Structures are given as C-alpha cells and as structure tokens.
Batch of 2 targets.
Target 1
Amino acid sequence: MSKVAILNDTHFGVRNASDIFIDYHRKFFEDFFFPYMKSNSIEHILHLGDLYDTRKHINFKVANASRKMFLEPLRDAGITMDIIPGNHDLYYRNTSDLMSLKEMLGYFTSNINVVTEPTVLEYGALKIGAIPWINAENYSKCVRFAETASADWIGAHLELDGFEMMRGVK
C-alpha cells in the first residue's frame, strides 16, 4: 500500500516574507515533516494548493528559503509530489494560464508534477481525485469532474460560498 502525505496552504512568504514565518516553516520541515516522512517510509506528497502566499510576485528571499527548506530536501530524499494550484498560486483570478508553480518549480520537474486539470491520481490502490482552483475558465470541467470522478476521495483547493471556515467566520 502506498503512503501519501497531504499538505496544503503552506503559503511560503506569508506576512510579507516575515523572517519569523520563514523560520517557523524551516523548523516545521526540518524538525517534524521530513523526519516523519523518513521514519514512516512515505515517498510521496499530494499538495492541495497555495505553495506560495503572494499571487502577484515572488520575493527572492522566499524563493531561496522555500528551495532550501522544502524543494531541495524533497528532491534529495527521492520524494515525489503532485501539486494542484490554489488561488494564491495563480496570477489571474479567471484563468490558470500564469501560475507561480510552473514558473518557480522548473528545476524540480523530475520529482514534481503540477496538476493543472481535474485528474484522478493513483497511489497504489488509492485513487484520489484532484481539483485545482476553480475559475471562470475551468468551472464546467471541474464541476463535471466532481460529479463523475471515480475516486476514493477528492482533494481540492476551494472557496465555498457561505461555508463557515472557523466559528463565526464565513
């Protein structure tokens, strides 16, 4: 049976590229995440979007830190990753044509698969439907996929109108 770690909303560069949050991310990956992956023989990650925090630009300090603390250790450990774009990964709100994932992960294409279309991903016997951020351009395709996909479960990066994300916050 394949084991898959699921991440989402890492938001590298959060709070205006705050050194405090960069250090928090570094400690999480170095002290917890990668040691857990190794001790549990997990060799694959499914990331459900928002790798980076800022839609319109990438800070060089953030690009450097995310490469050193996440992307290089991922590659060096032989871990593969499927990742769908979230709203913060897309430059435009109405199309998926321009995204940080394609631009920033170019050197890591041997172990990272950017999933830009609704897709059923197979991890051994486990079938996971992956739905990227829904926008005007892909809305019909994503809805049709959600209604018809043959998968054990579906992972997506969504904004659900009226959904209460935290008590009292819609």
Note: The chain has a mean pLDDT of 93.
Target 2
Amino acid sequence: VGIVAAMAGSSTTAGGAKARAAIVGVCSNSCLIALKLAAGLITGSVGIISDAIHSLMDLIASMIALASVRKSDIPADATHRYGHEKLEDLAAGAQALLLLLGAAFIAVEAIRRLVNGGSVQKIGVGMIVAGAAAAINLLVSTYLRRAGRATGSAALQANGADLRTDAIVSAGVLVSLVLVHLTGREWIDPAVGLIVAAAISTTGVRILNDATRRLADEALPPDELAEIGRASCRERV
C-alpha cells in the first residue's frame, strides 16, 4: 500500500491525499481481479468467480471514487455555487448500484450451478488465492477508510467499505474451499456464492441509503447532534 501511495504523488493537501488513496484502491483491485479470474478458471469455483466479479465491481467503484474526489475539490463557481462536494455522494450511490448489479449476477450463477451441478478442480490453488485476496483487501480497506475519515471523503469511505466486504467474501470462499476439500460436497461452493451475493447486497443497500441521506441533506441523528453540541460548549469554555 505504501509503495503505491508514494507513486501516486507527494502532495500533502487533502485533495492529494484523497487522490492517492483512490489510486491505491484502483491498483489493488486491478491486481486482484487478474489473480481471482485466473484462479476461477483453473478451479471452476463459483465462489472464486463470484469473488472476482465482486472485485471487478470494486474496481469500477474505485475508478468512480478517484474521479469524484478530484472533481469534488474544485471550488464553487457560477454553476455550482456551493461547490462540488455532492459529487462524492453521487459516486457512493453509483458504487452501491454496481454492487447490487454484481450480487444479482452472482446469485444467478450460483443457482444455476446448484441446479445443474459442477465440480471444483485444484482446490489448493483456490485456497491460496482466496487467502491472499482476503489479507490484501483487509489492508487496503483499512487504509482507504482511514483516509476517508481523515479527509471527509464519502467516496473513499464507501470504497473502503466495499473492500472490507470483499475481504470477508474472500475469507468465506477460503472456508468453503476447505470444506469442499474435506467433505467432497461440491454444493458448498455455489451455496457460498449465494451467501456472497447476500453480503454484497447488504453493503450496497447500506451505502446507497447513506448516500441518499446526504444528498437529501437529512439531519444528523439526535445522538450525533448532541455530541456536536457538547463539543461546541467545551470550545466556548
């Protein structure tokens, strides 16, 4: 992560930090997609292929995040009197829709495999790839979420949430492959694919809901407003 971030530029501004973080997401997803697709083709695992599709959705989301954080830092102008920050919320909403689309595709493929049957080959390769993908996504998602909180970027936080879900998905795929190897029950693989689809859908709905609330300028929850009030009082004292 550090190497890629360093390559992204040396700017210390918030805009530069957001752009570097977004580039990290794009680079990591690009590598993982190639790795997972290769493993999916070798093993024939629905779980790994589903994970690869999820990473593809994450890559598109990362590219949207990169474009949005660069655009959102443009100052207010004649056509955007209040600045361009809302573009990040639009980007987060677009990421959510992509996640839901990917979940639907995975669910269809998993159901087809459950009905028609199938087999998983070279499970060892799949286990190595799934374990490595889980570790990498966990590291990158932590970096993106911290960068998002530090810079106030909704797009980066959404992208970090995507990758955290992807890490969980990869860990689930690893467990499923271990179970298939130990029990010989091939139906476990597409069953995990359905669980992956459900997990992705949950994340997509949550991100879409959060983005919609911000775009509609919905008031903060009472507990957050109370905390802001207490902090304001402390500052005045």
Note: Helices lie at 2-8, 14-43, 46-72, 86-116, 123-151, 154-183, 188-215, 222-236.
